Amino acid sequence: MRQGVATLSDAELLAIFLRVGVAGKSAVDLARDLLQRFGSLNGIFAASESMICEVHGMGPSKYAQLQAIFEMSRRALMEEMQGADALHSPGQVRDYLCLRLGGLKREVFMVLFLDAQNRVVAQEELFSGTLTQTSVYPREVVKRALHHNAASVIFAHNHPSGVAQQSRADEMLTDALKQALALVDIRTLDHIVVAGNSSLSFAEQGLL
């Protein structure tokens, strides 16, 4: 309370949530076990109920509480994006996408749909695939953009491999989607690649 929660480590923050540990382990020790097992906070949030319950001291109730905390964080960030110009608050967009996609074990392609003021009006996960490949159909992306009456879009997908770096296939896909959307006067603002807590912006890399 004196120094603020930002001064706490990930394990200490988790310990506040856990409240108590188990026999022979404090709440901080249990939190460290979780972080070591799943690699990060995103990894913990992305873990299945069965995986969480395998950890001694955890159970269905704790899993449900973790998911509730995660969902509240995502919704809070989405509320901020819905009321702000996404071009002037790229950090919020990246934070949201890292929370949404960073811990997933499968590759997911999603789209943020924006209005003429660059405010997010909707977001959808449109395609998912294996760890290394996702099939994305431009026709479906255009269809959903028109459904939301979007003036522009931001693409995002994750790399479960853990490397936030675009591939040649990513560049070709982005160009195809951008051209398809341009035919109906919808702008492509960015394509963000997420890997864990890291991200890469096509716009910042000069790839759009």
Write structural notes for this entry.
- The chain starts with 9 loop residues before the first helix and ends in a 7-residue tail after the last strand.
- 44% of the residues lie in helices and 17% in strands.
- The longest helix is centred in the middle third of the chain and has 23 residues, at 60-82.
- The protein is of the alpha+beta class.
- A five-stranded mixed sheet has the order 2-1-3-4-5, with helices on both faces.
- The protein has eight helices and five strands, in the order ααααααββαβαββ.
- Helix 1 (10-18) crosses helix 2 (27-38), helix 5 (60-82) packs antiparallel against helix 6 and helix 7 crosses helix 8 (168-182).
Give the radius of gyration: 19 Å
Helix and strand string, N-terminal first? HHHHHHEEHEHEE
Uncertain spans: none
What do the pLDDT scores average to? 86
Largest sheet: 5 strands, mixed
Tell me the helix content: 40-55%
Provide the β-strand percentage band: 15-25%
User: From the helix content, strand content and strand pairing, which structural class follows?
Assistant: alpha+beta
Strands of the widest sheet, in order across it, are: 2-1-3-4-5
Distance separating the two termini: 45 Å
The number of distinct β-strands equals 5
- What would you call the shape? elongated
Can you count the helices? 8
Labels describing this entry:
208 residues, alpha+beta, 8 helices
